[in-house]
Q: What sequence folds into this?
């Protein structure tokens, strides 16, 4: 009896992308691009709020007035400033995060496919956060620079209207050349990792725990509305708990820019100076637009992730029929 013919290239490809880690990697990239584009104006406004030290009043505004100021001064481009770089960063960042989470789960499962406990989910998420941020950090710091270079801060020299601003690669090259070489592209990574690890860990832990309560009885998965709700809750909880680290990350990323008004020596020095000059609320600057954006951001992220992942995983099932 002749042996069965080898599977075609198409079948091998479909079976490859249907593997849980690979499907999660691809779906994570899609989820990142979707979620960040949806909330780009609020993401940029959050950064402009975060970087203001004491004595700077340009963006001491309500959320709606801040958005109106961005629109009035820069138009639609102001809403999307830095979003191209952010998407270039967030696609691999989110892909690595979701893919590595599913990779690390293997080491915590008693049996393949077994449910993890809350602590195990937290640990897997923390490791996934550290992995993803380390791989993509230079793009994050450049995105921050691009987000503020056209904003109307008095001490930062602005280009004339219509003048071409440096792009992603030019900004990265300038930092490398003028601000300390390769290490300049990783400035602020310590507070970033300190904040990202618990944030991602909490996000995965809360989402996978909460989604159970959104799942109809007798079903394996929540409805689309249920996934949106679980994603919004997980994002809000994780962001609120870890927000001061996000402020520190932004401050350190522009710590060496001329005219910005502060140069912190260490994380503890930054916390001391911020609390002394701006109060404890200084560690929560920009949290209002951030919480306003985190619900649609994480909701759309989790929904698009699960839909894309399930699609790729279903390819193997079709081939095995």
A:
């Amino acid at each position: 009896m002749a042996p069965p013919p080898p599977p075609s290239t198409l079948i091998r490809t479909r079976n490859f992308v249907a593997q849980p880690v690979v499907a999660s990697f691809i779906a994570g990239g899609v989820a990142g691009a979707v979620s960040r584009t949806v909330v780009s104006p609020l993401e940029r406004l959050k950064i402009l709020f975060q970087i203001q030290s004491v004595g700077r009043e340009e963006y001491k505004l309500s959320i709606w007035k801040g958005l109106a100021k961005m629109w009035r001064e820069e138009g639609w481009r102001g809403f999307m400033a830095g979003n191209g770089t952010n998407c270039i960063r967030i696609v691999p960042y989110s892909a690595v995060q979701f893919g590595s989470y599913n990779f690390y789960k293997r080491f915590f499962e008693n049996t393949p496919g077994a449910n993890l406990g809350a602590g195990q989910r937290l640990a897997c998420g923390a490791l996934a956060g550290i992995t993803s941020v380390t791989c993509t950090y230079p793009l994050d710091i450049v995105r921050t620079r691009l987000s503020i270079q056209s904003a109307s801060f008095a001490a930062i020299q602005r280009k004339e209207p219509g003048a071409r601003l440096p792009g992603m690669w030019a900004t990265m090259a300038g930092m490398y050349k003028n601000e300390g070489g390769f290490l300049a592209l990783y400035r602020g990574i310590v507070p970033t990792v300190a904040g990202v690890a618990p944030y991602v860990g909490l996000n995965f832990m809360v989402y996978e725990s909460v989604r159970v309560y959104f799942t109809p009885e007798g079903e394996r998965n929540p409805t689309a509305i249920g996934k949106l709700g679980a994603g919004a809750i997980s994002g809000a909880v994780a962001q609120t708990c870890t927000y001061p680290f996000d402020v520190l990350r932004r401050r350190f990323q522009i710590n060496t820019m001329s005219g910005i008004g502060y140069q912190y020596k260490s994380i503890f020095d930054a916390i001391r100076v911020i609390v002394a000059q701006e109060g404890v609320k200084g560690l929560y600057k920009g949290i209002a637009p951030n919480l306003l954006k985190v619900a649609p951001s994480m909701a759309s992220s989790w929904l698009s992730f699960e839909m894309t992942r399930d699609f790729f995983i279903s390819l193997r099932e079709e081939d095995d029929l």
Remarks:
- The mean pLDDT is 80.
- The domain at 17-150+167-319 is CATH 1.50.40.10 (Mitochondrial carrier fold).
- The first helix runs from residue 9 to 17.
